[in-house]
Amino acid sequence: MKFSNKRFNIAIVYYLILIILIIISGIYTTIHTQNSARDNEIDSAKVRVQSLSYIIRNDHVDSIPLIEKDAATSSTYSRLKIDLANIKNYEFAIRKIYTLKKVDDKIFFVADSERNPLKDYNVLGQEYGETKIIKNVFDNGEIITEGPIKDESGTWFRAIAPIMDSEGNYTSAVGIDIDQQINNNITDNAILFIWLIVFSLLLVVFLLYKYEMNEVEMVNLKSDFLALASHEIRSPLTKIRWGLSVIINNLEIQNSIKEQLVKIQETTIRLISLTNSIIETTAADKNIIINNNICGSDLKIILDNSIKNVKDKTQDKFITFNISKSFELGVCVQGESDKLELAFTNILSNAYKYSPDNSKIDINLIDYGKKIDVSVKDYGIGIPKDEVKNIFNGFYRAKNAQESNIQGSGFGLYMTKKIIEFCNGVLKCTSELNRGTTVTVTLLKVKA
Question: Is the backbone of residue 280 left (phi > 0), alpha (psi -120 to 50) or beta?
Answer without folding.
Answer: alpha
